[in-house]
Here is the input.
Amino acid sequence: MTEFTVRGLKGMKSVLDMPVVQDGPPPGGYPSVRYARRIPNTGPTGIAFFGAYLGAMVYGFYQIGQGNAERRGLKEEKLMARAILIPFLQAEEDRRGLKE
Here is the structure.
């Protein structure tokens, strides 16, 4: 404690007799406070994300279309093979029926 705050010193009758001691700013003032939002632009933008998503979606739909076309071709080939074999299978069945 300093001598200003100790009661009972000679000549000090009240707290009001104490000298006022206040802190002040440092000479030249305080440094300025940076309060603006300065967020760095790091990473891709929203448009880049949207473009990448759209590209992936278009590629996926393209792959689905290619798979559907291939499956359709295989199905058509299978049906054509069955249609070509029907006369031979029918002839075998007729021959077996004539033997009996």
Observations:
- The mean pLDDT is 86.
- The chain has one helix and no strands.
